Amino acid sequence: MNKAAVIQKILAAESAAPLELGAAYAPANIALCKYWGKRDIELNLPVTGSLSVSLGDMGTHTQISISDRDSLILDGTPMPADHKINARLFSFLDHFRTAANLYFAVESNSTVPIGAGLASSASGFAATVLALKELFQWELSNEKLSVLARMGSGSASRSVYNGFVEWHAGVEDDGLDSVAESLNIQWPEFRIAVLTVSDAPKKIGSTEAMNRTVGESVLYESWPKKTAHDLPIIRQALYDKDISALGAQAESNALSMHATMLGCIPPVCYFEPETIDALQKIWALRKDGVEVYATMDAGPNVKLIFESAAQEDILDVFPELKIINPHK
Ligand code: PMV
Asked: Does 280 share its domain with 248?
């Protein structure tokens, strides 16, 4: 099924008459059990389920108003119409034009620190869908909103919620069962921190890396098995608030994802020397009894997972860390 047909199905009973303006916020998220590989590229349907933590007040504020032409202002800067960000956003928004002469003026502001390697499309597309909900006054469930956000960017399905979130892979061709849900877990001591080792633009984007890995890497065959093993352990560790079990499995999951990429020819390698250096420092801290674990996404930066009690010991080794309390 194509994207337009799925979106039509979801919006069939919803109002087509917009207000003047809709505004919303969505947090960025970091996966503890990764989404890596699509079973349907157009609909962003994943091969496996995944699980993430949303980053509280780090994310994207978006407002969409009805206009006589399309425009995007990103963090205060008007974006040129032919910029690739505009192309991606407005080809998504094309699916939501309820009249031929209906255009969108979009203003988007990110609260994610520049260069933290968190400027993912997840909070951007989730905030776009939530702003559209306000603009058209849709009466959709969070699950349906997560399906719409997922069609902008896979990981955006998880950014329509705060806290810990699970995205179910689903089995249907139209993906209406490939939805994210909140796990409703409170863990006030949980922290995630970003260690920026490079803020240079990525050499290869996550979509290309994912699609190449699925197509080229024999190691990808083991990924669904790895996730089927890790996801229930990670979910249970969250319910148990067990940082050792959570950290060990989340770290292994992330490093295994990178291993599948290294199996491509030529290899997809996001690791920089500073990435390895940081991982070794994290492992040394653990040897000294400090419970800290790493996760990484499609980039060289390292995210640290720990509880607040370990914060001081960790800051001694990584004074430049940006620490996030996801419950704030
Ligand atoms: O949503 P995308 O297409 O940017 O993919 C995100 C992929 C990872 O960040 C590497 C993993 C994840 O689950 O977020």
From this structure: yes
